[in-house]
């Protein structure tokens, strides 16, 4: 990535922050304006951010956490990670009270999958909970889900966009506190992922998404 490309990406971030305050770079004449950036550069940046982990540290963390995992956590870990490794394309619903320590399980799987150089996305229905997850985000923010969602709502992610390319490379999505939001959120994401996956050479109509 050239110095000019880095400069443009920085200007984009500054402009985005200013927009949240009702301002733009144009309101500060000494500042240079953003020049349109190639979408492939934005895609590379987003993907690089999700791979920006020390794989050796994650591998050690996963090993240490697995050593103290409960039998229930170990069972869920083995089932889900195996499904990821073999690209089985399945859903898992993990339910349990606080004693199960689901957040521990999510972070264990995150460390294991990312230590192999794979991309996975951690989201939560609650902002506070998302902070407990490794590189976690709010589901609405990550998947561009409308706040005022209805039955026909769709996610604001277009096929071929940098966000779509990230989802194509994603190996696993963990959605914590799933029952806290309406089913329309999941239906919107399902439609979005279906559209995105049709652009993938590995697309199969027999698998989810």
UniProtKB/TrEMBL annotation:
Molecular function per GO: 5'-3' DNA helicase activity; ATP binding; ATP hydrolysis activity
Enzymatic class: isomerase
InterPro entries cross-referenced by the UniProt entry: DNA_helicase_pif1-like_DEAD (IPR010285), P-loop_NTPase (IPR027417)
Record-annotated DNA helicase Pif1-like DEAD-box helicase domain positions: 70-199
Top-rank lineage group of the source organism: Eukaryota
UniProt keyword annotations, A-Z: ATP-binding, DNA damage, DNA recombination, DNA repair, Helicase, Hydrolase, Nucleotide-binding
Catalyses which reaction(s): ATP + H2O = ADP + phosphate + H(+)
Entry cofactors: Mg(2+)
Record-stated family: Belongs to the helicase family.
Protein name stated in the entry: ATP-dependent DNA helicase
The species this protein was found in: Arachis hypogaea
Origin organism lineage: Eukaryota, Viridiplantae, Streptophyta, Embryophyta, Tracheophyta
